[in-house]
Amino acid sequence: MNLTPSLFRRGAALLVAISALWFLTGCQTLMIVNMTPEHLPANPSQIYTITATFEPKVDNVDPTSIRPRIIIDGQFHEMSKSAAANVWEFDYHVPVGRTTASYYFIVFYSFKNSPAGARPTEMYSGLQNLNIADRYVIRAEATRAPVGARVSVLGAGFSPRDVVYFDQTPTRTIFESGSSLSFFVPSVPAGQSYQLRVTGGGDTLNVGSFRVDAISFDVSPSALVLRSGEQQALTFTLPQPAPAGGMLIDVTTDIPASIVMAEVMVPAGQSSATVIVLGGKPGVGALFFKSSSGETIIPVTVSAK
Q1: How would CATH label the architecture of 218-303?
Q2: Which of 151, 218, 253, 261 is least surrounded, with the fewest CB atoms within 10 Å of its CB?
Q3: Cis peptide before 120 (omega within 30 of 0)
Q4: What backbone torsions phi and psi does residue 227 show, to the nearest 5 degrees?
Q5: pTM over 0.70
Q6: Burial classification of residue 228, based on how many CB atoms lie within 10 Å of its CB (0-12 exposed, 13-18 middle, 19 or more buried)
Q7: What is the CATH number of domain 5-133?
């Protein structure tokens, strides 16, 4: 069926009124459901598939007569029927420099008992919006991990300014590329779920829920006694090899001037890491870190030479 210029003008002028009427007529005869997300991730082709269903709600509608169109950028386009029942599609090539578009659907259909030559019934959807995002999150590599595990976040538009947060707790975040960030699960209470988000560049991206598990490991020796300038090895052993990205064990102390040591990172695929602890200024305190048994304490005594 050919659409005349007068139909074009009438469809544009009466869109608002017909959209309201659609809720009355559509639920009686045919329903239009837009299946296209309002926000879509950018792609190099700049082609985005708009999908909708045009489903008869009464037996009297002739399904073979359904002919949907999409009106976008002021132009009418035929939609193609997909393999799924009542589902129609249109590939929209977004013009260069555009990140938004507005559109609506018009569908023509007939009733099985319509007399020959009768004009098809026409129905319009409400106005729809399409937004192309060049910065977004696809998913986190995992949805749960123990404290210290390194986890990647995949998406697009990331920058070195981005930081991954667990609720309000910032993580040690590593910028890998515009499409990948990684973070170390912070030392937060285990056995709970947290909302992950990426902040930076003036906006916030929601990643999803993440559950933190407790980590179990042994430390040897169980106490350190050093003189200033003296070194001693401290070994952390996991019950299983560290996951991809390694396992960061967050160690703190209440006598930072008395202890000099590197961060504790168990390499991926290995089950232990040894660090050298150097005695600094004389002092008495401890090293603290969290494990599956709660907070573990290693007493430390540093005496003068």
Answers
A1: Sandwich (2.60)
A2: 218
A3: no
A4: -105, 160
A5: no
A6: middle
A7: 2.60.40.10
